[in-house]
Each structure stands twice: as C-alpha cells, then as structure tokens.
C-alpha cells in the first residue's frame, strides 16, 4: 500500500514538472513572436494645416516594445481630439518584400508580367467621355501635404498581390518593385508612379477632359525642370482642379496652369524623398515620350534654358 501511494506521488510530481516545462516553452515562443521586427504601414492619414505638429509630438511612431503586448493597431494623437494616423503591424506576407531586396524579376515583378493586376487596359482611364474643362478664375490652387512618418518605409509588393490605397491620389505608400521609366505615358497605374515619387520624382496627373492647351503648358514647364518626371492622364483627378502635381508627401491641385506656382512647387518638393536615385526605371508599357536629361542627377531643378543639359 505504501509503495503504491509513493508511486502515485512520483507520477504526480512528474506530471507537474512536465506541465511547467510545457508552459515555459509556450511562453518563450510567444515572446519570440513579439520580438520579431514588424513592418508598419500607414492605413489612414489626415492632412493638417500645421506641418510642424509632428515635430513637437512626444509619442512614438513605431511599436518597439517586446514585453508580449498585442500591437494589432495603434492610434497616435496630435491634438486632444484629432486622430493623426492609425498604424497596423501586419503579418509578413510572402508576396511582400522589403526595400533593397533583389525583387525585380519575373517571379516577383519584372515590369512586364501580370500587368493586369494593376490595370485592365480600359480606355476609360485615359479617354475623355464628356465636354472639356475650361479654367475658372475664382478656383484657387490647393496644396495638400501628408505628414509622412520619419521612419516610414514603403513595402515592395510583388505582382501576385493587389495594392489598394485610402486616397484617390496617394503621395506615399506600398508600390511595385519595378518603377516606371521617366517620361509621358498614355496611362500609368499609381502602383508604378508611387515608386518614382519615392525616388524624388514629380508626377503630373491630369483629367482626360482637361483642355489641351492647359495640358501642353503644364507638360512644357515640367519637362523643362527635371528628368525625373511622369506625365499621365488620371480619371480620379477632381474636375474642379483637373491638373495635379504630386511629389512624395505633397499634392498641388490647379484649376488652371500657374507656371510660376508650379515651378516653385517643383523646386521645393522635387528630389526630396526617401530615396533620391536618378536611375531610370524598368516599366515602360505605353510610354509615349521618354524624359530628357536636364541636369546631371537633377541637381539643378528648373534651370534657365541656357543651363539645361539637353540644350548644350
């Protein structure tokens, strides 16, 4: 009887020891999961009139704790009652790669394969289906600025996966690995020109029903300013301001072409992005006219005619 009771106690102790060991392993695994660096994407961003607000904000942009807390989503506050941005820490996806990876290939994205993922080739995206827009003198230009977090890194997304945005004209965000060759296009999807923005480019978007004279004037001004430019029609441009210049984090809407204003915008915001490489892109589907070199590496933005590289 004594030996049976002793055996039962020994078995009970062994069971408790095994349970404790299993719990320790489970806890350790959970902590390891939270210690893995997580990519952070902005999923909502409200523009603000004060571009210096984020400089004085005492909060943190990135979830950097590793104590096992769950960071499904984090809201950051600029003022007491105003949401500045909402961030999520998504799980790593097999079709999403980080910057710097050798991801320009037929498996991920070569700029030629599976292009219908971003655009089905519809003529409605670059054809005017109504009367042309004429300038209205009392509609002022509009400047929108997105406060891009200092440590924000846009993901490269392979062609096996779609990309969506929370703004009709995004100024930053995830994009395709193969950026577009610079120049004028019959149509270029935003998933391509967003990568060009990240390299310091200026993108000119115009509604297909914009008056041709306005288009030509804006094209001429932009082409004379820098090599890194993209020009494409875009039906999501607002009809009251049918010409939009976009840089990384900035949008200038115009009802009519103000060459002085546009040039000032380009000088101030071009070539100021996360990466400022002047290398041409790989994607050239429906490229009408390649960009011409204005100054080496676009170091001289909007130079006088006698200083332009292609005029020497």
From TrEMBL:
Residues 1-22 form the signal peptide. The keyword Cell membrane does not apply. It holds the Pfam family DUF3105. Keywords: Signal. GO terms for cellular component: cytoplasm. This is Tumor protein p53-inducible protein 13.
